[in-house]
Amino acid sequence: MSMTARSKATLLFGLCVWAALMGSCQYSLDLWVIPGSTAENLVFGFAGSRKGEEKVRPQSIRVFTCEAVKKAAGQPGEAEALWQAEVPQGGSAEPVNRITYGRGEHGLETRRGPSPLAAGCYAAFAYGRDERDDLRAAGLRFEVKKDGKVIER
Question: Model-level pTM greater than 0.90?
Fold first, then answer.
């Protein structure tokens, strides 16, 4: 059975739509500020859901000022990061559901910073692998208050 040019085009279009849909079905992770966090001891929760006990293997985390994110119209480059940590190539991270700002732990190695967090607005972007080894992403905006307390925005 030979295919006509039109049926080939229809099949190709269908495959492209299927591929686009499959690529957009990545589940996100949740990233949140653990209550009681301060600028000197900022702890992020990192799991499949805010109340979840699921542990993920962190791959990278970056923290920026909100101003840097606004200027970049998205996630800024590495040079703008106040703190950047990632799993080295060929390395692996242990499953966790907490990440502490500025600490290279659980298989993460600090690549930049950490810079002290003054009062102001910040954004964090993190990537981790779930139990199926799927790479998932999370983002968060938070604020450091004048008294050093950290709240989500």
Answer: no
